[in-house]
Amino acid sequence: MLQTAADLAAQSGIDVTFERIAREAGVSRTTLYRWWDSPQVLLLDALLDGARWTIEVSAGEETVARLRRHLVDGARVLSDAATGAPLRALAAGALTREDVRHAFFDHWLAPRRAAAATILDEGVARGEVRPDVDVEVVVDLLFAPLYHRAWLTRAPLDEQVVDEILALVLPSTTPPAAGP
Amino acid sequence: MLQTAADLAAQSGIDVTFERIAREAGVSRTTLYRWWDSPQVLLLDALLDGARWTIEVSAGEETVARLRRHLVDGARVLSDAATGAPLRALAAGALTREDVRHAFFDHWLAPRRAAAATILDEGVARGEVRPDVDVEVVVDLLFAPLYHRAWLTRAPLDEQVVDEILALVLPSTTPPAAGP
């Protein structure tokens, strides 16, 4: 059923109705109304299911390696047509409808931002990130360029750009070296 | 006429037609067809006219001051409802229609990116920016967070966040200090 919703979003954008999803997936509308506030929230769940942009935080690695894994995952999800296209359609909805923006923020952006913020907070605890760094701005700097490239400039979205982003942003977030 | 187009975009989004703009502005459709490829390109020109996000590059200032002026200008244009709302509607169109994305890129993003790239290139010539820096990625890092905040997270978009962005990105772009 989530796959049906994802397929519909890829074909027709986000203006898909509960009626249509129910018909195509062969389930009752009542089931859909019970579980999801809106067709857009259902589509987000379908994307979450398919995108496998993990929001899990791996322990026991250095901060830079953990962030890198997260960003490479994001670049792949955004550039892969199967996940990137419906995500872009949802983002377009988020730009024009406040309820879609809330759903997109709560179900897609916020969990990924929180995972990155957790990595940075644990980096602070491990002495790898300065305690006075503004985590929200660092998260913007790491992720916003990926969305901007995928959605607007279509510039390359590969491991090389991830490494360039990390190399430009992370030095300012690390504590001063204790000396050689 | 550009003001009429901007007003229509703010009211009705980007799916405005040449017919409607011509009727409201009291000009002939032929005039519009002669000057603009599509209503969306006309709307972009209307925004450019109204937004006053300068793409001029001021000379004789340090790189950081020139970039800061550019970013503060951008934050204002994106958060001001009069300019931010039609721009957001156009971006939503860019996410779903390739012709709108091209118009948005060519008429809005590219000139602003080019202005920032010029500032960075001149910074290289003045010894204030490392010659090996990837200018396109730096431009993404400086500007993408502004769009991301204005369009999706609605986090504050003020001079403080501009200064935090500059403080996190620019140190990695400056040449090693020559000593005290």
UniProtKB/TrEMBL annotation, chains A, B:
- Which keywords does UniProt give here? DNA-binding, Transcription, Transcription regulation
Residue runs in coiled coils? none
DNA-binding region(s) in UniProt: 17-36
User: Does the record bear DNA-binding in its keywords?
Assistant: yes
Q: What is this protein called in UniProt?
A: Putative HTH-type transcriptional regulator YdeS
Q: Where is the HTH tetR-type domain?
A: 1-54
Q: Which organism is it from?
A: Luteimicrobium xylanilyticum
A GO molecular function for this record?
DNA-binding transcription factor activity
